[in-house]
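Record format v2
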Amino acid sequence: MSIPLLSLIVFVPVAGAAVLVFMRSDDAVRWTALGFGIVDLALCIVMLAGFDTTTHEMQFVESRPWVAALGITYALGVDGISALFLFLTALLGLISVLASWVAIDRKVKEFMVSLLVMQALMLGVFCALDLFLFYVFWEAMLIPMYLIIGVWGGEGRVYAAFKFFLYTLAGSILFLIGVIVLYFQGGETFDILALTAQDLPFGVQSWLFFAFLVAFAVKVPMVPVHTWLPDAHVQAPTAGSIILAGVLLKMGAYGFLRFSLPMLPEASLYYSTLMLLLSALAIVYGGLLALAQDDLKKLVAYSSISHMGFVTLGIFALNLRGLEGSILQMFNHGITTGALFLFVGLIYERTHTRSIANYGGLMKAAPIYTAFLALFTLSSMALPGTNAFVGELLVLSGGFAANLAAGTAAVVGALLSAAYLLGMYGKVALGPPSVSAKHKIHDVNGREMAAILPLAIFVLWVGLYPRPFLGIIDASVRNLLVQVHGEGIGE
Amino acid sequence: MTAVALLQWVLASVPEIIVVTGACILLIVGELVRKGRDELLLWASVAIVLLAAVATLMLAGEIRPAYAGMFISDSFAVFFKLVFYLATVLTFFLSRKYAEIEGIGRSEYYVLLLFALLGMMIMASAIDLLSIYVGLELMVLCTYVLTGFLRKERRSNEAALKYVILGAVSTAIFLYGVSLIYGLTGTTQLDRMAEAVSGGPLDPALLLAVVFIVAGLVFKIGAVPFHMWVPDVYEGAPTTITAFMSVAPKAAGFAVILRVFLNPLVEASNAWIIVAAIAVATMALGSFVALVQDNFKRLLAYSSIAHAGFAIFGVVAGGQDGIASVMLYLLIYAFMNLGIFGAVIMMRNGDFSGEVIDDYAGFAKFHPGLALLMLLYLFSLAGIPPTAGFFAKFYVLVALVERGFVALAVIAALLSVIAAYFYIRIVMVIYMREPERTFDPALTPLVRATLAFTAVGTIGIGLFPAWFLRLVQQAAFGG
């Protein structure tokens, strides 16, 4: 590959941020950010078009020495597990720009710069084939995200930003120690593929598993280290919530898939029951918490905890359906929850309240809005025909195969999600128009439609014809299973 | 003693000779410089340092022992001298406007800084406890005076007095340790001392001597339990001097510590357990106490204690990577700490002291560029990638894990999370508060140059650490 496609994908947003720094007019800033977002998404589509679904090998690989003395390389590559996330990140990045078009009215330039830098770092995380490089991308995200929550957030933004920052830093610093231990155990290299090929003693694997678990569990987030998430989500601006829910949470799960499972297979198998139970706990507990929320954003935030529980459940089911389901479900969750946060943001811009009790009868005032809200609510509930149905079904079937109790808990969680989502939708969209909704609410405009439509398309596309998406991940997941279980035990 | 050998000795110490000659000339000629032409002093001082730097670079690459085992010019010394030059020149740059505002820009100020530089250079090159002592005293005597340079301010006087008294005690302890060593081994040279103890169980008196020497040195880098002077002195001293002291003399202290700890005597004494305890205590104290500081200079004082603690972890790790990691840490710390101090110094203008953290509220609104620079330094101090501060910490952790000190690495890492809190709190004040005032930073071209240079270093070493890593590894392995 003569053109370093992945480097382009990662650094186009950085270039965009650099260009923005020299701009003065807010409108020019918005359009330029949008332009760079579109270019980046186009590059991701080019990447997917050239993606070979028949192999589990890394593709579009680039590698050059970075810090030779410590065996650190600048190495990028994608396989079936990461390819979808690159696309998702670029898509949600673009939608975040659209979502902040009028919602962010001060320090627009700084906001767009943060957003673009954030996007570049997230893309970097999914491409990195070197642990050190991965960690740099992973940790550097704290800076723009801290600013996005802390500067442009709501009332309690400072507290939420601190909490987010410290939780994540504390989690990932142990991961860093784990990485360094792995470096010495695995023959002084940070090369992810070389480390994957190592066979570490079980004792080392156990320690590393828990060091990694802390970092990834905070990011996912898994109960009991989830408490930063509601704060961060509620206080973050809409774009921040979309990025957080859509991409950031996926990184924890991606970490399990990229590091814990292939590098520490024995420990992953050994502790899989523990992980399944933690996942089941997150599914039910997150669902119960969501049931009790009056704040729209909090409701979606807690539902995220529950839905990410499905993802980790699928991962640690450690079978084909579970893994494929959970990767697909991550993609779905990014689309659907991103859309739900977008919808909360849209209505908040109009009414300046997020309390469900203040809403009612929105269907009359904003029929298009409520129609799409229905679509995404149903998708979040995993109704057949929508994207999450496919993912959740696979996860459940994998989960039941692995652990009956965890599978049962997941079913309970699915029922809970129907309860809180339908309850929310009923109160907001149906019924008599509420008192506070009496001021004129405009329906969605063209720009907002541009943000909604692509998400809606993916909801239905994955729901009705998931094969191309499963095709992308299939080969890599099969290979991952071989790495975990050894040859021959694929199913 | 032939003339050629003598010439060799002189040659090895040409940089020191340049600085001492230049400083003496400046001391005399400086009085003749008329008021209002102070920039002449500045440029003359910078020229002296640059000349010394050129001489140092020309000596690099060869090991030159001199003065009968008292002094050596090796790559280790060269590296540290370059760090000192960097810190000193940047301090000169930052001082120009600040000294004018505070009314301290007389020739003594520059001359004392040059003599302090000389002391540090001797420390870096010294391989005998006595020459170490001479360099150490020359350096601290100058910094005592510089600390009290704001003669009309009680805070400054108090700080200087505290510093002198505590410094004298620590010097005495150090000297007592040296005398014990001499009594037991009959030498004060580092390598001959090592020969005297090789083989056989260690004399408990020697252990005592080592403890005394360690205690004396620990004072200079402001580590627990000899850290009490740091906050008061850092707060009371002119900010430029604080910036200087937090970087250069601290690096000099570490140079000596590394030299002494390279010594088998200390390795034989299991002193690393003491040092590990010191590292943990220092970092914990610096990090926790910094959490509650309202004064920017005091906060940076505790932050510098915490950073010293982290660097001591590198000393604990020992070995070549351990030494190299400390050196890299000090280099990177010089960039980011001079950067953040540059920002604080720049704020001192008119009636505005810029010392209270809350005074920075909303700074980002009026000066987005400067705020971004402060953000960069602060995140680097907190150790967040891709800044250089992260790589510094990373390499220390690598050295620790390499030696099997995983538990220590975990402690160091967790403490640095606590330290991160107070750095990002400043970022919060700068970015997330509404401004209560307008700002008028004293942005002279020299301050701008300093900020730009340190910023380039802070981000540059973070993104391209390979070259710097090779530099410190060569300096550590080759010396």
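Residues 271-491 of chain A form one domain.
Strands of chain A lie at 59-67, 72-78.
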